[in-house]
């Protein structure tokens, strides 16, 4: 119900059912209390007016009404929403008191053991609470319905006015213009896109003539151009049509515009037929139209371009539309332009074709400027255009301040002010095609700052807390609905997903970003509903605001804080302080929050010691997040609370902690020592995740306290050695937790002594068969759980076994068909996996990590599905092979290689890589990262470099016994076709590995026989960006100028403790080296080399003085002694500067790209530097106390400058 009123304002199809739901539920409560007398007429009037209200919502354009801010209709719509929300709040308050009664009943049950006394006291208190609350509730509910009835009367006034409001004129014109799209090129000039056009033309024409003239396609290929509105998709399609006209590639070329308010198969089919026949078809029914279309297409190659397609949900309609094209002439093609990948996914799925997509990005700088010049200033007079360039050039030449750019922007607007309107119109049309609930969630994101990195979990929880997710009933969780919303918004290009971390790891994740233009769109369409306030901002129509984020809260005065309740209808309040607040400001904020009666979400960042009032005023809160709290008594009465989070540990007493157990609606809580502490969870029946539950022997913390938590999705239990008997576990009902997807079972690391019960306890910890992720850690029993043998864990995706020191044998887990991640860590006694080495690990395994298993001598066969392999500190004597099923190399015939990352570390028993997967040619072809480090016993390492044509990173180190075989023995070891080294014997120094050109990073650490041959194999590695040499005692010189000249991408060189190094070779020819570090090389003739161990004077020396585009610089002392020419060469690129002992005065203002500044030591006489505006991080490790006080005192010039920096640590 929380989302009901908000969805009313989304309008259209949702308004009527939402209001009907509120009215019917309110009267059901009144009837239950026999208080509905005299209200029947109100109910009848409200329900009768629903159709009239729906007519108003359906007829008007809310964006247009909002633009007419003072109009009577706009005022009425807001009043109506206020009244709906008032009714919703009244219903929510009824639910609140019901939850309060349940909490009282639970408390009595805990306090009174005698069941008779418990029953009597429970009934007495229940009646008292019910009698006291019902009087107030009835009065509130009746008034809310009367208010709603009073406002609803006004709808009659507007029924006769709604005919005045058309759709947005500019939008309507844009759509009608688009619908006239044809294959004729409408643009008179075309900027850029040559590469994209060539790619499309290749796709259209390659292999077009294969097959006989009568052969037909089993599936017609589909190619999609995807991009935001206005980026040039349609024009690119028209350009392709123009270039193909008159050619012999296609007999029919049709461009049909598909966009429209409804996806009509008949309408689109008519358009296609009309474009082919050049006349309107006589037929009207779809069946007749498609029959004519089939005849027209018979035995003819065609190109069908479907332009500006939006529909991504009606599969049956798509199947109908595409039916005539399913059996087409070989060589026919379909080209699709759309803003949403979800559309392309739908069409390729219907046609059964491959997903071949082009994501159209923005133009480059030159093309963008030419396009801007053409679109924005085409109609300007010559003198106006000259004037514009003079203005822009003049401002660019000077020191460009913020005021300068404001003036420039004003003058540009005066010359041509419609470009932003055109862009925003195109984006608005995308927004209007979204379902109402997605529009609501999209608008909400306007309160976040631009370039905000959204985490899926955090954003969905905020949508839930603010009441934006409408649960329609059934078993669906609001979290699943919210994640679906975000997925749809991403597929429809309103968000972009940016992956982070190791892409081959189980913990691979990412974040979502919103393009600046889309953020502007979200602000523009938020109807004064969602507002982000910087300090000093002011809002006039505060009663319309529902969701508010106040940034830099510490800058607000007490008067401004006390004015926050003027936003009387707030649902969301986010307070973000740039520094910890004083107690006076905190108290003012407490009073303000207390007066926000309808608040659903409250987030306080850097607000310490906040207290909720003991007499709860915020009965509707669903989401509360703190950085600090002093009193929890009021918080423990927020019975609607679903999410309770803390940024730091909050110390609460036992009585305060106990009360948190009354929050039966709580779904997420910062539990344990890093949050609100440990409290009773037995009553938290809605909890979705419970992390770090410490099993204890005292009441309330025993394992059977989990019995009522039937909705748990994630559970981590610790200190399981405190379970006294396996019979206790039965009461926890672990196997009945249907929703449980992730389970972590942990004993303490100090639990050394095995107990007789250990194996039986683990056997009873049997999860539900739907479990996907399982972790077992520090278990001290000798037997693997019996339920692995008989339980059908068909959904198991991840299995992690850690520090189980008594296990000697493990199964190969072959029955876990869906297992993708397997990690075995510090199983110190493990000697065998599977019944024999010939068995294979699970067939769909992607990641295998084996660490700290020193007794394990061999691994089972690896599946061909494996993507990532990490072996660390393991007693293997040989590496495993990849299974070749049915006795043949299936992968080489049909299955592409998957293995991408291999890390072998600290395997002292490993002497050779022969007979391992590294010599299976097919499976190393996809390898991108290969690391072999600290294998002290390794002697021979035959590597198929010539087959690793995707290798980007290679590290080999601390393999002191590693030797190269003599040249005359290579032929005996490997056949010529499998040779792993190519030797060229013109001279002894010309021995080379056949290293693939894809290599980007090369690191060698003490690898004896490999050092010089690898270094001599660098020529022509045009993608190499980083070179690291450490403890390479045989290296006497870096490569020659000829080699370094060929390393066009090389940016980083690290040389450490290479005792024989005499020369830097030809390094001086590298003009764009951004990082150079040479340390501990005593034989190097140039003793003063390396700016981070001597002085900036080194920058005068060759080759350092020619460095350009340097991104990071570390110097020991001074700054002013850096050569001026060097600074000029690098001031645009330098992003990080670390000075160990800075000068008294530092001229930093010219470093316009500097983001990170660090001082190791700041003495008393150091002047405060003029910091560049680009700076994001400022760190001083050792600061003079007086200097620290001067620089960190608020309202000083130094502090005003520092406070604008995102990250400061002094």
Q: Could you characterize the architecture of this molecule?
A:
It comes from Setaria italica. Belongs to the disease resistance NB-LRR family. Residues 18-108 form the Disease resistance N-terminal domain. InterPro entries: LRR_dom_sf, LRR_R13L1-DRL21, NB-ARC, P-loop_NTPase, Rx_N, WH-like_DNA-bd_sf, WHD_DRP. This is AAA+ ATPase domain-containing protein. This protein is α/β, with parallel strands linked by helices and 1210 residues long. Among the domains are: 4-166, no CATH class; 170-365, P-loop containing nucleotide triphosphate hydrolases (Rossmann fold, 3-Layer(aba) Sandwich); 424-526, Arc Repressor Mutant, subunit A (Orthogonal Bundle); 928-970 and 980-1087; 1090-1210. 32% of the residues lie in helices and 15% in strands. It has a 15-stranded parallel sheet, with no helix packed on it. A seven-stranded parallel sheet has the order 8-9-10-11-13-15-16, covered by helices on one side. α25 links the parallel β15 and β16 (668-669). α19 (436-444) crosses α21. The longest helix is centred in the first third of the chain and has 40 residues, at 72-111. The two termini are 49 Å apart. Residues 163-182, 209-214, 380-401, 887-893, 967-991 and 1086-1096 have low confidence and may be disordered.
Key terms for this structure?
7-stranded parallel β-sheet; alpha/beta; 1210 residues; Arc Repressor Mutant, subunit A; 15-stranded parallel β-sheet; Rossmann fold
